[in-house]
Amino acid sequence: MTFNGWAQLALFVALVLVLTRPLGGYLNRVMAGDRTLLSPVLGPLERGFYRLAGIDPKEEQSWWVYCRAMLVFHAVGFVFLYLLLRLQNLLPLNPQDMAAIPPDLAGNTAMSFLTNTNWQAYGGESTMSYFSQMAGLSVQNFLSAAAGIALAMAMIRGFARAGAKGLGNFWADLVRATLYVLVPACLVLTLFYVWQGVPQNLGAYVEATTLEGAKQTIAQGPVASQLAIKMLGTNGGGFFNANSAHPYENPTALSNLVQMLTIFVIGAALTNVFGRAIGDERQGWALLAAMGVLFMAGVVIAYGAEASGNPAFAALGVDNALGNMEGKEVRFGTALSALFAVITTAASCGAVNAMHDSFMPLGGLVPLINILLGEIIVGGVGSGLYGMLLFAILTIFLAGLMVGRTPEYVGKKIEAREVKMAMLAILCLPLAILGFTALAAVIPAGLAGTSNAGPHGFSQILYAFTSAAGNNGSAFAGLSANTVFYNATLGITMVIGRFAIIVPMLAVAGSLAGKRRAAISAGTFPTHGGLFVGLLVGSILIVGGLTFLPALALGPIAEHFAMLAGTLF
Hints:
Elements: H1 3-31, H2 39-53, H3 63-86, H4 103-114, H5 124-127, H6 130-160, H7 170-196, E1 206-209, E2 215-218, H8 223-232, H9 253-277, H10 281-308, H11 311-315, H12 333-346, H13 361-372, H14 383-403, E3 408-409, E4 412-413, H15 416-440, H16 444-447, H17 454-469, H18 484-513, H19 530-554, H20 556-565
Antiparallel strand pairs: 1-2, 3-4
């Protein structure tokens, strides 16, 4: 662990904090339909979309109508993307003559990009045509991210409104998030990545002769445009199989920093939108502080584990001065590899610049825990905020039990309906993760995919279903997941991890929106200070520990102690 490593971490944190408030203000104006600097240019286009679709953006939707619109939108998107993948061999922009995607893989991939998971059981440059990458995967990257922002706004309105029947208009929220936030930012980012050396073309792959005289195929294509939205939308689906470890997707130290920033920036800014909407920005900073505590703890542990190196190598006389460099790019080293791994799993992005399967046991434990906690450390675009707010409801409920008082959060009484719906959303993740992991760990179809025996093999399975349920998309890539069993079970897990949280979350938002705001009194528990932040972090860790500690003990924790004991599995 070096000064340079800590300096890079400090720079990242400082930049996120600097960007949070101004971007939060912009998002707040956009999603409220207020005028912005882009309104003169994009306003007519926005209104044209509404007229074309027959939508009144001012029409309020109840939580159920909002939810129904969201579900229909995703169902249509699934059918479109599935058919595109199945028929890609017949569609244009396929210079490498990629074959049609098999049904099980097409279904898994369509569900993956639909749910903002972007799990990839295939090599992008060897499986997907340019048309599939652009019209299919990149489009869903925009739409799934925009849907996440829209859903976060629905939850925010639930707390901000009083005596209201509606949560806004899903279609208007979707259009505004796409048109005013994602598209303009990605245009700038695409140009930036091209400047840094990322390809953006429709040319055929190039064949080169290596120094040894062998032939090597160098893939290219419309990479920069997909890279921009995969990071900003916390999607993570790479154009290349090696993702952001590939020099064409992440060519420089500056591109690496910008990618890490864009993963976090919208999720962090939405906490400020929450504070602005309820009239107290301190509430948003408190949520961001809780996220920050968990994030920093993860970075310290992961960086420490990777910087320490492998003791088995040290026993053989190998110099561990650079730490554990297996599966890492030398140009990033242990510091930026560990930082990127924590960021991408804290934010439910799933892009990687190092292979998590090659991390030390404790280094791999941190990304796993980040996802297991339920998309609440910044999380996916939008989902991180509403995931954290569900835990805030649970925390306030527990605080109310301690003092014997009806719990309140930002002026809204938290009653039985809200607590039940919040717990339903929180508990659906362990049901999917632990249920499917247990199944895969005992049947031949599941065990056939692992490349390691013992605890690490179990960790590969556990990580896969954790990543799918958490809509993250990263993997312990030693697992061979492109089988009918894993494509089917992981696809089902993605659906549970996305929609089994969204539906009860919207029910909570609808219930809260209809309530009057309670007056602050001497007995009101303040939720903008250190005590609340500590209680919120403690509640998250207790729920996560009670739920997942036995599974973690069988995987990375057992592997860590076995490594220290010199035991091989």
